[in-house]
Amino acid sequence: SSGFEAKTVEGEVSSDKLEFNAGKIDLEKIIPGGTLLLECSEKDVSFLIDGAEAEPSVKDGVISFSGIASGEHSISIKKKGFSTVNRKFSLSDSKGAELGTVEMQVSDWKNIEIEVSPLSADVYINGEKASVERKNGKIYTEPIEPGDVRIELKAEGFKPWKNDSFEVYSDLKNEIGPVALQPEKKTVPAKESKEDSREDNAVKDSGTSESNK
Question: Residue 109 phi/psi, 5° resolution?
Answer without folding.
Answer: -70, 145
